[in-house]
Amino acid sequence: MKRNILFFITLLYLTACGGNTNQDPKLDDFYSDKGGFDYGRIPLIKPYELTTSSRENYWTAETIDTSEVPLNMPGARNINIVNSIIFIYGRETILNGQEVDAAWFVIIPKNHIVRGFMDHKKYLAYIQSIGFQKEPLLYDVQEVYRFFSKHNKVDWKEISLSLKAEN
Predict the structure, then answer these.
(1) pTM for the structure as a whole
(2) Distance between CA 49 and CA 80 in Å, rounded?
(3) How far, CA to CA in Å, does 107 sit from each of 8, 41, 66, 152?
(4) How do residues 26-56 score in pLDDT, each as one tens digit?
(5) 57-88: pLDDT as tens digits
(6) Among the listed residues 95, 161, 80, 91, the one whose alpha carbon sits nearest the alpha carbon of residue 127
(7) Strand partners, 104
């Protein structure tokens, strides 16, 4: 009888706890990790992400993969991803190793391209050269983070719809 009870308790325990171990292997923690106790995080396209320390509204765009094109862009203010291309606008940031008042970045992960522009006209010319007829709308990083925190995912189409509904 004790063995049956012990077996039942063990089976119950394994069933209750084992549910988390049999997750879909296609799911990647990179896209669900929101950060830690003292920092926030927004996943972009792996290996690119935005992070913030305890300083509110000071976000840094970076890459977690050292074999990828390096990126360490503090001061990220606005962001969007369109057709697997990351667009970022930053204030008081770094471009080509120098501090600048503002810069626009275009990251194309599949082609390992990271381009930054101090001049808005050059940024617009570049995005037009890669197939964009008009400048993509960029969303406030804090709004994107609130969406991610609430919905446990970053869905750029849903973000666009929810922000339009609020206005």
Answers:
(1) 0.78
(2) 12
(3) 54, 18, 16, 23
(4) 567 878 777 776 788 999 999 999 999 866 6
(5) 789 999 888 776 677 899 999 999 999 999 99
(6) 80
(7) 89, 117
In one-letter notation, the amino acid at residue 23 is: Q
Q: Which residue has the tokens 């509904």?
A: 165
What length is written for the chain?
167
68 φ, ψ to 5°?
Answer: -90, 170
Q: Which two tokens stand for residue 87?
A: 């667009």
Contacts of 137 (CB under 8 A, 6+ apart): 80, 160
Residue 137 tokens read as 């709308």
CB 40 within 8 A of CB 34: yes
**Structural domain spans, the chain:** 25-151
156, two tokens:
């750029």
Instruction: Tally the C-alpha atoms within 13 A of residue 87's C-alpha that lie toward its C-beta.
Output: 20
Got the DSSP string for 19-77? Answer: TTTT--TT--GGGT--EETTEEEEE-STTEEEEE-SSTT-EEEEES-TTSPP-EEEEEE
